[in-house]
What we know:
The structure holds 2 protein chains of 2 kinds.
Chain A: E1 4-8, H1 9-19, E2 24-27, H2 35-43, E3 50-53, H3 57-69, E4 74-78, H4 80-85, H5 87-95, E5 100-106, H6 122-126, E6 137-139, H7 144-161, E7 164-170, H8 171-175, E8 177-181, E9 208-209, H9 216-236, E10 240-243, E11 250-253, H10 256-271, E12 276-281, E13 283-285, H11 289-295, E14 301-306, H12 312-320, E15 326-330, H13 339-350
Parallel strand pairs in A: 2-3, 2-4, 4-5, 5-7, 6-7, 11-12, 11-14, 14-15
Antiparallel strand pairs in A: 1-8, 6-13, 10-12
Helix pairs in contact in A: 1-2, 1-7, 3-5, 10-13, 11-12
Chain B: H1 24-38, E1 44-48, E2 63-66, H2 72-82, E3 87-93, H3 94-100, H4 102-110, E4 116-121, H5 151-154, H6 160-164, E5 172-177, H7 181-199, E6 205-210, H8 214-217, H9 221-235, E7 239-243
Parallel strand pairs in B: 1-2, 1-3, 3-4, 4-6, 5-6
Antiparallel strand pairs in B: 5-7
The structure holds thiamine diphosphate and iron/sulfur cluster (SF4).
Thiamine diphosphate binds near residues 50 and 93 of chain B.
Amino acid sequence: xxxxxxxxxxxxxxxxxxxxxxxxxxxxxxxxxxxxxxxxxxxxxxxxxxxxxxxxxxxxxxxxxxxxxxxxxxxxxxxxxxxxxxxxxxxxxxxxxxxxxxxxxxxxxxxxxxxxxxxxxxxxxxxxxxxxxxxxxxxxxxxxxxxxxxxxxxxxxxxxxxxxxxxxxxxxxxxxxxxxxxxxxxxxxxxxxxxxxxxxxxxxxxxxxxxxxxxxxxxxxxxxxxxxxxxxxxxxxxxxxxxxxxxxxxxxxxxxxxxxxxxxxxxxxxxxxxxxxxxxxxxxxxxxxxxxxxxxxxxxxxxxxxxxxxxxxxxxxxxxxxxxxxxxxxxxxxxxxxxxxxxxxxxxxxxxxx
Amino acid sequence: xxxxxxxxxxxxxxxxxxxxxxxxxxxxxxxxxxxxxxxxxxxxxxxxxxxxxxxxxxxxxxxxxxxxxxxxxxxxxxxxxxxxxxxxxxxxxxxxxxxxxxxxxxxxxxxxxxxxxxxxxxxxxxxxxxxxxxxxxxxxxxxxxxxxxxxxxxxxxxxxxxxxxxxxxxxxxxxxxxxxxxxxxxxxxxxxxxxxxxxxxxxxxxxxxxxxxxxxxxxxxxxxxxxxxxxxxxxxxxxxxxxxxxxxxxx
Lengths: 354, 251
Ligand SMILES: Cc1ncc(C[n+]2csc(CCOP(=O)(O)OP(=O)(O)O)c2C)c(N)n1
Ligand code: SF4
């Protein structure tokens, strides 16, 4: 405890998961997240757990369904194309209210795309991805330390709400090395899950994990129950970081790796006397709408910087609700915005040329 | 007077939604009897498919999970890896297991997951109204092979038991039928064996049960049973395709 270790992002997630009590991991190889299943294959047997390399991401997410239904803390990870294959399973998992943690180390898309970092799975993560009305908590770390802390929280949140939680990283966060500290005690006792299918000898009555409701009124009642739960998440779980927003003329929205770049650009701008601030959503869903609504009272303009063709910018626009102009700057395909280009964009907006 | 025929404890006391004369009901009963006789009900976790047996979670008195279409073997894998002392089984139709879930069943078998699979082969998609299944026989008319399955157009039906028998992983593979009382008895022994193997930690066991769908075959229940003997068994021969206990003996 208490000591800093230099780790690669993907491996740090694995270690954080193990310390959070995760003993089951189901994965399938895809770049740029391979170090995570590899780490789990190495480490889990040492702590009495198991990593199963599934035949596909579809099988992996359904193994997660079974394992979560059996009461375990369980994780799977992938990158964009593989996460697409998991969408069916995620919809079932959300519907059956199974706690689990899914990691997406996003790479450039669409299609097979590339293997370099991107944030173009924002919509897929925050707006559903699979079929039906469901929500996942989506956590977006910007550093390895934050990633480690969020993995810990992700398991707790998944159990608290009986809901899937996604860690949305990107190839950069997965591959970079930074010192991390595992601050919390290792989880040894898992919370009781009296609903889990562990055999009727272990609980009163009979437990069923299911998402089928053939009668429309019962399905609607189930949906209303889910919606009440999502409303609670939205009310209680919003997280964001806000820097220099109070006096900012331009408030920039950015998450994950991109927020680090925007931060450098913001510091450079401040040196030149430009009043730029940053709101960094840590939960992408629920989105920190209020932070933007507040900022809209004082800021002159907003800018969303993303490694996508413009996805989170839609949520910024919804929050700002036409009160101030909302601009966008993004790179795609694994191209990373440079602080210089971002600074340039600030200047254009503040100079009225954007 | 001694009761000679009672509802197995593992079978819920409810009216099922199966069509009259459908052999899904017999197969449910055999599964429940095997669970009773091995006295494993309170540590059994069943996985229901998508297909006519989707509501199986209401029919067995053990804990149950309802899987997405074809994914039951992966769901079973997840459960069994978490609860190695539990008895985990899937109950799947041929569309579920042999078509959309072909990868899941092959790899669960190849991994030798210590689970029990009950594979109900009725050569048709029952639940969705009688479309062609991967197991539909050549010449058989279904709503999506209205001129009869033609190998040149729709390819050939899959023999799952034979295919899985080529793998190292499985411990036990048998194909049975339930179209006569004698066959029901044989099926009962096979299903019980497939559960007993799991109790003994022997590994992946699958019983393929030839079943009827009078509704979508357009036959009376009796005609449907006859069709199993006349048309299905010639293409899907009954018997043991793999048995690690018999290995080393003359086969
Ligand atoms: C992903 C997906 N695709 C298609 C369906 C529709 N569907 C429901 S049951 C079924 C086929 C079931 O046939 P089978 O497995 O042979 O079982 P049976 O009904 O004959 O017992 C299909 C295609 C579905 N529920 N999910
Ligand atoms: S549709 Fe066919 S398989 Fe389904 S319950 Fe009816 S007879 Fe049985």
